[in-house]
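Box S1 | Example of a co-folding query
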Amino acid sequence: MVSIKSEREIGLMREAGKILACVLDELGEALHPGMSTLEIDQLGDRIIRRYGCIPSFKNYNGYPASICVSVNDEVVHGIPSKYHLLKEGDIVSLDAGVIYKGYHSDAARTYGIGEISPEAKQLIRVTKQCFFEGIKYAKAGNHLNDISTAIQTYAQSFGYGVVRDLVGHGIGSHLHEDPEIPNFSQRRRGIRLRPGMTLAIEPMINAGRYDVSWLDDNWTVVTDDGSLSAHYENTILITDQEPEILSLL
Ligand code: MF3
Ligand code: CO
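Box S1 (continued) | Returned holo structure for MF3
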């Protein structure tokens, strides 16, 4: 069932989203060559708690950290490690979730470390734009598949692979609520969008083929062909006009 949030719930999700936007901005500023992915997690955990929030990923289905840190060919759900040091030219996807007074926000960004290749820059830019192409259709009366199709069409126009094995989701008093939101076109048009729905739209885009696998840690998702992957996610609210992006300042 896809829930419609009350004004009170929306207010809390706005707060959660603003805080999460600040968390990701602060983390992005802190990234530098030589930083370990565990340091990113520890800093993120501190920032989230400093805002009076709870990091929603910590211990979620046994996930051991507060921030998912995925480098280069890692797509999502990378596990922070003190042994994994960032280096110039890496691309790093940070995915974070916060709970504020019982309500969730979920967002992700991909950052470059120092000077990165033109190919990496384009992948990051296009992945972000995939989100914005998708939410052009995030309007009451449209169907979920309109969003999915727009994301896929845009990504594929650059020859990129749209990850199929992971999807976006509804969000609210739980991190993952109905509906599932694929980033690729479905055979059915999906639910009709209504004001008060809150959704986490999260294109995961590979520079090469879309196939991915899970590492032996059972979390880290990597591209099968070793190509770079980027992730961009925001929590949004469907309104009777333009969607409101809750996790952006
Ligand atoms: N943004 C991710 C998602 O929506 C959250 C990571 S799941 C966790 O699935 F287990 F790492 F928390
Ligand atoms: Co998500």
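The mean pLDDT is 98. Residues 7-245 form a domain with the Creatine Amidinohydrolase fold (CATH 3.90.230.10).
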